[in-house]
Amino acid sequence: MSNPFKPSQRLLLGPGPSEVYPTVLEQMSKPLLGHLDPEFLKLMDELKLMLQQVFETGNPLTLAMPGTGSAGMETVFVNLIEPGDKVIICVNGVFGGRMADVAERAGAEVISLQQTWGDVFAPEQIEEALKKHPDASMVALVHAETSTGAWQPLQEIADLVHRHDKLFVVDTVTSFGGVRVAVDQIGIDAAYSGTQKCLSAPPGLAPVTFGQRALNKIDQRKHKVQSWYLDLTMIRNYWGEDRFYHHTAPITMNYALHEALRILLEEGLDNSFQRHALHGKALQTGLQAMKLKLVVEEKHRLPMLTTVYVPDGIEDMAIRQSLLNRHQIEIGGGLGPFKGKAWRIGLMGYGSSRENVLRVLEALESSLLDQGFSLKQGAAAEAALQVYHAAVI
């Protein structure tokens, strides 16, 4: 007979999952309720309101889909795309590419705009595509590209997309809770996210929100939604007043999301954004003090996910294994063209703290020194501390 599984205690500072709040884990051990129990339905109502606050929207169709952020992506595309629709997808990393793949599988003709990984799209690029493809039904892009650490500006693009009378769809998986999303202010027609990044809950639910323009598209569909499980024409009734049974909800994951959102809103959105910005700046300053080069230019760097080039002569995997085995710290490796060439360090939600910044800088410094990399010992921590000192003056 096998023994109970006992995972090692890691510090999760990669691209996700992130560190989970202790009280979130406690909530997951609470007794199960039925998915139509009045108490659980009340929890769903509270979840909807809290998600609206974090998305900064009044959209009635705001809910948490079962599954990870990828389920949120599929939910948006299978509901807003009918076979033959033309859609413009902006690709500057793995998850833009995944959007294009999912849209194509939903039957769309995909116009894939390409940008160098680590860079962002300029409004002029989007406008050129819209003029070239006036029959496109939507433009979709990634707000926070997890594979590169690039932070995409949204407002100008949203304005021009709407001037062309198209839907504007945004991936907010890594940005949600860590930087402002502001769905209504920006004019995002549909957005999706995940629980395992800046919300600091385990992976398993995907917050989504749909505005009136997106609802009109759903209501005017001529074909059934490709996916039964993700069909919002049915699921919206489960989350609405009718409470029509559709699927057995992941009860404990909803407990977890409720607690994570409660913690975030108790901290305050602005405070959370400022916290992520401060610790991200401290980490990035510390990395540069080690003479490491960051992938994304400063004005487009995410605060909660930093991508740093592996220095010449240093083996990517050797450093990551050292961090994991000697220091119990997980960071991420590069994807696509950055595979073996970059590290991804996450400071998301509960994991975004001064203690974690200093710990990962010191561990990375130690591991690099062991590999023969030349650096000034202690310079990274000193540089990060100067950022903290300046922040309190």
Automatic annotation (TrEMBL):
Its cofactor is pyridoxal 5'-phosphate. InterPro entries: Aminotrans_V_dom, Aminotrans_V_PyrdxlP_BS, PyrdxlP-dep_Trfase, PyrdxlP-dep_Trfase_major, PyrdxlP-dep_Trfase_small, SP_NH2Trfase/AEP_transaminase. Keywords: Aminotransferase, Pyridoxal phosphate, Transferase. It comes from the Bacteria. SUPFAM superfamilies: PLP-dependent transferases. Residues 34-334 form the Aminotransferase class V domain. GO terms for molecular function: transaminase activity. This is Alanine--glyoxylate aminotransferase family protein. Signal peptide: none annotated.
